[in-house]
Amino acid sequence: TQCPDYSSKKFKIMLCRFFMLPCLLIIAVITSDASSLFLPGSCFLAVLTFIASEDCGTCINGQCVSEYCECYDNYDGKDCTIPFVTCRDGFRKCYNGSECRRNRERDYVTGQHKYSCDCSKAYVVSSFAGIQCEYSATQECEIGIANSAYSFCTNGGKCIEKINSGMAHQGCHCVNTFEGLHCEYLKGEAPAVELEFVAELQALRKEKPGISRFFFLFNILISLVLIGMFVFVLYKKKRSEKVTSKYEIEIRGGRVEPKSEIL
Q1: Which of 1-15, 86-100, 112-126, 177-191 has the least mean pLDDT?
Q2: In percent, how much of the chain has pLDDT > 90?
């Protein structure tokens, strides 16, 4: 009979390891002809080969070599599912659909321009951040947007503040091992410029309560002034109506000169 398809991972796990080997051993004992089981091309030998081999899982864009996936060009990851491009410097890799961007800074050894990754160009299936745009968002901070291009947190970070579309990203509360505007850098690896920007955001947040209190008190003061002006105008109007009424009464009484009151 023809051997089953041992390239099927499901068949290998469910049958080869649990059913085929015990059954073939029983047949060998009953027939007393165990030597035929080890001939080249026999099912039993194929089962032993697959059981002894390491299972590297499914390689989507690569091939299994020992227990690892050997990925094709421009793919990475355990199962070769993460696409990337290599920048012109031959060093920087940009993952998940992000694009290479040439910097003004040059390498002090080679003199060539350095490159960085533009994560805003990454795939819309998620928001990405990191030196190579390798970290996907774990929380979105822009209200009503499933995959924000700029306001999100990675690596378990939490949004400091949820924002409306068009507002500035307020940063993230990062777990201890990460830092950065999106928690995209390991502790100690974030660029100094980004850490300075994060510090400025924190300083602004500390000033917000004082500014809010000032505007609150200012609004109360303006409201009191407006109420006072309204009461004064109302008082003047009532006073004027009272004088006019008294003048009419005196005219009807036959007096020529009306009495006036100093307001």
Answers
A1: 1-15
A2: 27
* Confidence (pLDDT) at 21: 57
- Residue 84 pLDDT class (50, 70, 90 cuts): very high
| Whether the Cβ atoms of residue 135 and residue 174 lie closer than 8 Å to each other | no
CA distance 88 to 86: 7
Give residue 229's pLDDT: 86
Question: Does the pLDDT value for residue 177 go beyond 70?
Answer: yes
Both tokens assigned to 197: 């920007």
Residue 195, phi then psi, degrees to nearest 5: -65, -35
- Please give the Cα distance from 56 to 59 (Å, whole number): 8
User: 3-class DSSP state for residue 169?
Assistant: coil
CB burial of residue 108 (10 Å; 0-12, 13-18, 19+): exposed
pLDDT at 253: 56
Q: Is 82 exposed, middle or buried (0-12, 13-18, 19+ CB in 10 A)?
A: middle
Measuring CA to CA, which residue among 102, 107, 104 is closest to residue 118? 102
Specify the residue for token string 């390991």.
186
Is 255 strand, coil or helix?
Answer: coil
The structure tokens listed for 55 are: 């299972």
CB 58 within 8 A of CB 9: yes
The reported pLDDT for the residue numbered 123 is 72
Rounded distance, CA 148 to CA 138, Å? 12
Q: Which amino acid is at 236?
A: K
Angle at 20 between CA 16 and CA 23, to 5 degrees: 160
